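Table 4 source record.
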Amino acid sequence: MTDASRKPLLLNPEIVCKNICDDERILFNPANGYMQIVNETGKFILDRCNGTRTAEEIIAMVKDTYAHSAPDTLENEVKSFLDGLKKGNWIKEVHA
């Protein structure tokens, strides 16, 4: 893993989150008007982006929770999801 994966991740405090149902959450960025809907796994990941957990830790938690999925595939999907969230400014790395 890279050094970036060892920095804690935090949901951008400007983002408005609302559960639309048990399986989905809508994210809204008032700064740019963008919205994104995430599924149950996305909610699980976002709930762990609290400024105390790194990407490595979050990936391990997803692997434990969704043990029925192929670990390598799951790891790649979570990395890709987190990268997309960072690029979209939905989450950010917390610098010490």
